[in-house]
Design goal:
Chain lengths: 251, 345
């Protein structure tokens, strides 16, 4: 069964049509890249899918459920988690608190449990802390657990965001330019992490500018221009597609 | 992670025990009559405890969640007037329904909650600065309403003959009721601090601080941001309303002069001086500001050539200067944590 199905998605801002009849599908376990020049509508597409922005028309189906315009928090809980273009670590909170925040179904996030310090809440917090530490270990930032996230380096912030998203046990991650502003060493490291997550069954949709990084990583590419899907196909097909070369790779 | 650490006593439990003890104290024939020279301090202490209740709510709203509520006095006023109107017996030129004081207490809280729900639903979806403007405006509107609807509220003269349950239960007179009021309000305050601190120190508080840092990220990590903001706004409203009801039951009257913008200013400055987000720090800040006001009152006595009105204005200048010093040299407040408030000192 198709994991994510986007059908005829449409969004305009005044007279500007940012997303125009975008249709694509993602199968479970796939890594798909979304490329396109600046202003092609990649991030707006992401925002519409993830419920951050309401779409004007079209449907989004995730894991068999119609999730068109459901609130962002519901989508995240149902297993479709996104990151943002700029790293958005919660800099005024510790690294550990950043990772603990998304813990799903935490009774301690309800007032009564918090005030009574219920056993259920403490139990969940212990489990969550264990999982958080595992994730911080995986991404090699455990030594920073008690530091404020604002003190992390740019690369560590990217890793923290990934760890934080995984706390929700997602079936699919949507990453908005995860390699932007990242040095080559860390890019290699990030790619390795993403591949290993994908081996464990996580599906990925990745927006990226730099085609080079993506072609090795992804199974398929979706090319957007002017809010429309110009072409989809394997990296090899896309890089030899005349239309794409004209529109995006340029002369 | 506050710098204002005391040994960990559970304030919620201590507050409960103290509250029960203070009720027993009220019902017992025992009373304590403080020396009359201390009245000026004790009266200020009562006001401190009432403002502390408002501040406990405001700190959850602003210090933890980042909601800029510039009208905490609105909830204080609505709670106070609702309690007074329902319980006053034959007030002078105003409405008094003569119900028992517990009815007034509950009604005061509910009225403030109702205002919180109304304001929360209509403004919490807007940007932060809208909430600031709307709450400030609403506080001014309510102040205006209480003065102009004089047939209901008694206008600037106010509502008299409101029951004074603590004074009635305390025998002895001569300041004994003042002492009893402090004992009761002190325990209520400790309990409220304990409950709100448990909220802020739990995973619940973690969500609130995440909302303060980045609403959108918090939402995309699976949290119902609007619900949290609304509920926190209502909690603050409720405790503000409670403080208002307690005030009129202490005074035996409600009057527009109790509910001016000065209340908002004092709790806000107390919070900023103490360190927004530090549950103990903000109360320390409030104590500092109110202590400072008392100190300047004594100073006025030493300067006979300055009238009281003139000195009130000078006091505002001094409070402003104090705030400027804090903002310049310790922007996170005395007991605040710079990293949590993104303050660079």
């Amino acid at each position: 069964m198709t994991l994510l199905e986007v059908d005829g998605l449409h969004r305009s801002f005044g007279s500007l049509v940012a997303v125009d009849d975008v249709t694509f599908e993602i199968e479970p376990g796939e890594i798909v890249g979304m490329i396109g020049p600046n202003g092609a509508g990649k991030t707006t597409t992401f925002n519409c899918i993830s419920g951050v922005l309401a779409s004007d028309a079209g449907t989004v189906t995730f894991d068999g459920e119609d999730v068109t315009n459901v609130p962002a928090y519901e989508l995240a809980r149902s297993g479709l988690v996104r990151t943002f273009q700029q790293t958005r670590e919660l800099s005024t909170m510790t690294v550990e608190a950043n990772v603990l925040l998304p813990t799903p179904a935490h009774p301690g996030e309800r007032a009564w449990h918090a005030i009574t310090r219920s056993e259920a809440s403490q139990q969940r917090e212990r489990e969550a802390r264990k999982r958080a530490m595992e994730l911080l270990d995986v991404f090699d930032i455990r030594s920073k657990a008690d530091e404020y996230a604002g003190t992390l380096s740019g690369g560590q912030r990217k890793l923290l965001e990934l760890a934080r998203a995984l706390m929700l046990d997602p079936t699919m991650l949507m990453l908005d330019e995860p390699f932007a502003g990242v040095n080559p060493t860390l890019t290699t490291e990030l790619v390795a992490h993403l591949e290993s997550l994908n081996d464990d069954g996580l599906s990925l949709l990745i927006i990226e500018h730099e085609l080079e990084t993506l072609t090795d990583l992804v199974d398929r590419l979706i090319v957007l221009t002017d809010g429309r899907v110009l072409a989809t196909g394997t990296p090899a097909e896309i890089t030899s597609n005349e239309e794409v070369i004209d529109a995006y790779l340029g002369n | 992670m506050s710098r204002f650490e005391l040994p960990e006593i559970d304030a919620t439990r201590a507050g409960l025990v103290l509250f029960v003890a203070s009720v027993i104290f009220l019902y017992s024939p025992v009373f304590i009559r403080p020396p009359s020279g201390t009245f000026v301090f004790l009266e200020l202490a009562v006001l401190f405890l009432l403002y502390a209740l408002i501040l406990i709510g405001l700190n959850l709203q602003f210090g933890h969640t980042g909601l800029v509520n510039f009208g905490p006095v609105a909830f204080f006023a609505v709670g106070g007037y609702a309690a007074a109107i329902l319980t006053a017996n034959d007030p002078y030129r105003a409405v008094g329904l003569g119900f028992a004081w517990p009815v007034g207490l509950v009604a005061g809280v509910l009225a403030a909650v109702a205002l919180g729900v109304l304001l929360g639903f209509s403004t919490l979806k807007l940007r932060d600065d809208f909430l600031a403007i709307v709450t400030l405006a609403v506080a001014e509107i309510i102040q205006g309403l209480t003065i102009t609807f004089r047939d209901v509220t008694g206008g600037s003269i106010g509502l008299q003959n409101v029951p004074r349950p603590i004074a009635d239960m305390t025998g002895g007179g001569g300041g004994a009721e003042l002492f009893a009021t402090i004992v009761v309000l002190g325990s209520v305050c400790l309990l409220a601090y304990g409950v709100f601190h448990r909220l802020s120190a739990s995973p619940y508080g973690r969500v609130l601080r995440a909302i303060r840092a980045d609403e959108q990220v918090t939402e995309t990590l699976g949290k119902r941001v609007f619900r949290y903001k609304l509920v926190v706004f209502i909690y603050g409203a409720a405790i503000g309303g409670l403080a208002g009801a307690l005030l009129v039951f202490y005074n035996g009257a409600a009057s527009a002069s109790f509910f001016t913008i000065d209340v908002t200013v004092i709790v806000w400055i107390g919070m900023l001086v103490g360190g927004a987000g530090s549950d103990r720090g903000v109360l320390g800040g409030l104590a500092l500001i109110m202590g400072f006001q008392l100190f300047t009152r004594f100073l006025n006595d030493l300067l006979p050539f300055v009238t009281q009105d003139q000195f009130a204005s000078i006091r505002l200048v001094l409070v402003g200067l104090l705030l400027m010093l804090v903002v310049k040299y310790r922007p996170e407040g005395i007991w605040g944590t710079a990293e949590e408030l993104e303050a660079d000192s």
